[in-house]
Every structure is written in structure tokens, then in C-alpha cells.
Write a structure and sequence with these properties.
7-stranded mixed beta sheet; Rossmann fold; binds glutamic acid; 14 helices
């Protein structure tokens, strides 16, 4: 389980033992992610001239659950957690999206992330809707036993909204294959063996080959295609990656394997820089042994904020949302920003980057490889058939390239930024399905 949890600097520690009001407005230290994604939605809705009725339906979540999860902690006291599941849109298929364990999880953030899932599944054209969930907690301060109790508690509390053809959770920030195994096990107690209820499981328990690396692989494929389209060489391109969790570390490995030069990476403990590029296998070994990128031989330390401002070809934010904002957007020197994290750039920063000609490749396209392989996992579970890694990776590659081409074509046709083009592709598909249903 993650030993570190990144937090936004200004955020105070939350006390889980106090019942928390479930504001639909974010608390003062939180970013208003729902407003951010809603603004992006409206911009694209305007471009495709979406009729107000459809716009209203697509902007509104279908169902929002807030649940109380009491957990008996190791020291004997009862701690009260709050869990969320937002099902945003299901016109194209069952609700689908991850579960996040983080101190800053709140309804507003989950709502925004659920909407992003609806757009993502439409862009990569998998027959799913969008959902997201999470628990406000600090997993770095919890034992394995406590996390298991929390996961089982959440599963049973949202059980009535889940289903193989209704809503299928997956990993997200600070949740992993082990957490998914507990969900499958808990759900199975009531409903019998149901591997397709959750994706991102351990391969041994019905998980898919290639699921763990899928978001990183998708990120690499889209970055490579974006370079091609912009007349840049991917081989030899210099890359800075912020965040070294599942998405950041797999991206680093796969970018390097495809010939890019990773010059800076960071995690919660700090960052490292080497203008000549890291020996990636050695760095991954170092992280495995020490738990952090910090102190890797031959590298210089670099602060997380400085990493974002390096003069590189590709900047890959792969951690929290809102890291590129009005305070630092004008100082970003990368040629292209590849949004591996969800909402790493605020709308104001997006605008500033746009003015300065920094190309932004948007989250709903870049990180959609995860849910794409989740779809493969679900299909394999339903068919009780196991695909090999080559099949998974080549099918992922095919779908990501197709998605890139659709978004790029929309950008060329409509002369809008890539983010808005991606929204246009998603909203067009969702609008069509909505019209056919109502
Ligand atoms: N949590 C991941 C995402 O944000 C994966 C979701 C899934 O596989 O359902 O895209």
C-alpha cells in the first residue's frame, strides 16, 4: 500500500473522527474541480452547438451516494469515514470509474472526476458510462488491516448501486489490485463469485494482463502520436514527469523504452534531475529498494515546483490536479504538456499556456488507457477467457491511436484546442446516444 500521500500544499489535515459536512461547494483549501470541468464542458457544448436539453442532461450526474463507513481501528477505537460514489452518465453503458483514497477527496472532486470518466469512455469508444468514488482518508497512516476494513465497509455500503451491468469500480489514487481483490471478495459474499464487478484485480484473481501499466502505456502512445503530429521527434525528446505512483512510474519506464530521455522525476519526498537522462532500469530498482526517487546516484535534487518549470520537450504531470495554475503557468517552458493526471491544469493556466503556444494534450485522452484495459478485463471476465499481454497491448494501441486520430481530426476541423476537440468528440457521441434514448 502507498506509504506516501501527496497533498496540495495549503491543505490542512482532516480529522476523520469528526463528522464532515458534505458540501457541494469545495472547502476553502480545495480546488473547485467541478467548476473547472463544467467550464470545459460548456466551451465544447458551444462549439458543437449542443441543444440545451441534452446539455442539461449531460452536465447533471445521474446518482450520488454518500455513505458512512465506521471502521474499528487497530488501537480499538471506532473511526468514522465518509465514502462517495457518483454515477455521472450511463447512456453508453454501465457506470465505470475508479475509487480514490485520499485526505482531499470530497463530493465536489468525485463529481468532477465522474464526469471526466463519461468523456473518457466515449473518446476511446468503450461501451461504458462514467463514475468515480472515493473515501476521505489518509492511507499512509493506516495499516493493511484498517484499509481492508475500510474497503469492505465501502463495498457493502455502495453495494446497492454496483453491478456487472450497472457500475464497475477500478483502482485510482492510492488504491491498487489488492484493494480491488477485497472489493471482489466482499461483493462475492452476497452475490456469489463475480469477477466482472471490479477491474484492476490481481491477474491471479481474474485481472487482465497489462492493466497495471495500461494508463502509463496509453500516456506514452498519445505522447508519441502528439509528437508526430507536431513535427517533434519522440525518440530523444526530453521529458519531466511529476509523480511516481502507478501512472508516473509506468510512463517513465515506457517513455524511456520508446527512446525518450527522462531528465527529471519527482514523488512526495522530492525530485531528481539529470539533464543527460536517467538509466531507467537502475532508477526503478532504486525506487523499489528505497521507496523514493530521492538520492538516485548521478542526479541532482530538484523541488517539485521547479520540475514543472524545466525547459523540456514534454512535461508530464502525473499526480494531483491543479498543479499548473495561474501562479506558475507563465513560467512553464515545456513545449508540450501531457496530462497524465486528471485536471492538472486549471482553466486560467490553460488559457495562459494557449496564448504562449504551449500545446496541452488533455487528460480525457491521455489517461484513457486505464479504462480501456479495464474494458478488456471486464470482457475477459464475462467470457471467462484470458488474453495474453500481446493481445492486450496491441488492442490498447489500436484503440488509443484511433482515439488520438478522432481528437486530432476534430481539432483540425474546428480549429479549437485539443482539450476542446476531445470534449467535442465525447459530447457528440454522448449526445447521439441521449437523443436515441429520449
Ligand atoms: N481510475 C482510472 C481513471 O481515472 C481507471 C478507471 C477504470 O479503469 O475504470 O481513468
Amino acid at each position: 500500500m502507498a506509504s506516501n500521500v501527496m497533498t496540495r500544499p495549503a491543505t490542512k489535515k482532516l480529522k476523520n473522527n469528526k463528522p464532515k459536512p458534505h458540501e457541494t461547494k469545495p472547502s476553502p483549501n480545495h480546488m473547485d474541480f467541478n467548476r473547472i470541468t463544467d467550464e470545459q464542458f460548456l466551451e465544447a457544448a458551444d462549439v458543437i452547438k449542443l441543444e440545451p436539453e441534452i446539455s442539461m442532461l449531460l452536465r447533471t450526474p445521474y446518482r450520488e451516494l454518500i455513505v458512512q463507513i465506521p471502521v474499528r481501528m487497530d488501537d480499538g477505537h471506532l473511526e468514522l469515514f465518509h465514502g462517495y460514489r457518483v454515477q455521472h452518465n450511463g447512456v453508453r453503458g454501465p457506470y465505470k470509474g475508479g475509487l480514490r483514497f485520499h485526505p482531499e477527496v470530497d463530493l465536489n472532486e468525485v463529481r468532477s472526476l465522474a464526469a471526466l470518466m463519461s468523456w473518457k469512455t466515449a473518446i476511446v469508444d468503450v461501451p461504458f458510462g462514467g463514475a468515480k468514488g472515493g473515501v476521505t482518508c489518509d492511507p499512509s497512516k493506516m495499516s493493511r488491516q484498517e484499509l481492508q476494513g475500510l474497503t469492505r465497509g465501502l463495498t457493502s455500503k455502495i453495494d446497492m448501486a454496483l453491478g456487472v451491468y450497472r457500475d464497475i469500480p477500478a483502482p485510482d489514487m492510492n488504491t491498487n489490485a489488492q484493494v480491488m481483490a477485497w472489493i471482489m471478495d466482499e461483493y462475492g459474499k452476497k452475490h456469489g463469485y463475480t469477477p466482472a464487478i471490479v477491474t484492476g484485480k490481481p491477474v491471479n484473481l481474474g485481472g487482465s494482463e497489462g492493466r497495471e501499466e495500461a494508463t502509463g502505456r496509453g500516456t506514452m502512445i498519445i505522447a508519441r502520436e502528439a509528437c508526430k503530429a507536431n513535427g517533434m521527434q519522440f525518440k530523444g525528446a526530453t521529458v519531466a514527469i511529476q509523480g511516481f505512483g502507478n501512472v508516473g512510474s509506468w510512463s517513465a519506464k515506457l517513455f524511456a523504452e520508446e527512446g525518450a530521455t527522462i531528465v527529471a522525476v519527482s514523488d512526495i519526498k522530492g525530485g531528481i534531475h539529470n539533464p543527460k537522462g536517467f538509466d531507467m532500469p537502475a532508477l526503478l530498482k532504486h525506487v523499489k529498494e528505497t521507496g523514493s526517487v530521492v538520492d538516485f546516484k548521478g542526479s541532482k535534487p530538484i523541488a517539485n515546483d521547479e520540475l514543472l518549470l524545466l525547459d523540456v520537450d514534454l512535461l508530464v504531470p502525473a499526480a494531483l490536479g491543479g498543479v499548473i495554475n495561474r501562479d506558475n503557468a507563465e513560467l512553464v517552458r515545456a513545449k508540450m504538456v501531457i496530462e497524465a493526471a486528471n485536471s492538472p491544469i486549471t482553466p486560467r493556466a490553460d488559457e495562459l499556456l494557449r496564448i504562449r503556444g504551449v500545446q496541452v494534450v488533455p487528460d480525457i485522452l491521455v489517461n484513457a488507457g486505464g479504462v480501456t484495459v479495464s474494458y478488456f478485463e471486464w470482457v475477459q471476465n464475462l467470457q471467462q477467457f484470458h488474453w495474453d499481454l500481446r493481445t492486450v497491448n496491441s488492442e490498447l494501441e489500436r484503440r488509443m491511436i484511433k482515439a488520438w486520430r478522432a481528437v486530432y481530426a476534430a481539432q483540425q476541423e474546428r480549429r479549437v484546442p485539443l482539450r476542446i476537440a476531445a470534449y467535442c468528440v465525447a459530447l457528440t457521441k454522448l449526445a447521439e446516444a441521449t437523443r436515441q434514448r429520449y
